[in-house]
Amino acid sequence: MKKIILFILCMGFGLSAGSWFVLNLQQPPEEERFKDGQVIARHVGISVSNTAAIEELVKQLPFSEALTAVSVEGTSVKMTYEPAEKEQADWTGSNGKTVRSAGASFLESRLSKLIMHQTLALFLSVSDLSELQIRYTDTFSDVTFETDRQRIEDYTPRDIERATSSATRFNRVVVEDYVLVGSRRSVFFKKFQDALQILPSN
After folding, report:
1. Using the 8-state DSSP alphabet, how is residue 65 labeled?
2. CA 79 – CA 115 distance, rounded (Å)
3. What pairs with residue 133 in β-bridges?
4. Phi, psi of 169 (to 5 degrees)
């Protein structure tokens, strides 16, 4: 009887481990998930007045499984992300504490990459987008990033101005050469330091 119980337990463990392994094989590496040039190229030139198209675009951007709200008001777009509790450390690098924007862990976090990626992707592809707000909330932090087209145009390096001309170019220039490069994320968040507000969660 004990051998049968032990056998059943071992089978259950083996199946669970196998399922975990298969799921992780199906999930691309985090950095690869930002390479969504095909999505951006398909939506280049859409108008913010086309609410359905804007919502479709936002929902196809990286890590949309944590997207809880998207709204279009005039020529402004607002997005809210709220990940599952077990994923919060991956998002912020804060490991159970309020996010610190000045810390190296934030600049290396998924959240910093997502803010930079989503901001550049939307302003480069939606020509009449005037303002963007990205909000992130979890158990410990309430983060809001808010900027407008003029500030983005003042920041945008010349080599990414036409990066939406093809999916390959967007992935290579915007993602690989900017979003995924720590020093360039640092420059981005220094430039938009006052656009980032971080508060403890209520």
Report:
1. G
2. 10
3. 78, 146
4. -65, -40
- Residue 131 is which amino acid? E
Measured distance CA(99)–CA(64) in Å, rounded: 21
Determine how β-strand 131-137 pairs with β-strand 76-81: parallel
pLDDT tens profile 124-163: 999 999 999 999 999 999 999 999 999 999 999 988 988 9
Q: H or E stretch including 198?
A: strand 196-200
**DSSP E strands, the chain:** 67-73, 76-81, 131-137, 141-148, 196-200
Per-residue confidence at 103, pLDDT binned at 50, 70, 90?
confident
The answer to whether the beta carbons of residues 98 and 17 sit under 8 Å apart is: no
Q: How far apart are CA 88 and CA 108, in angstroms?
A: 14
Determine phi and psi for 45, rounding to 5 degrees. 95, -5
Contact between 112 and 187 (Cβ < 8 Å): no
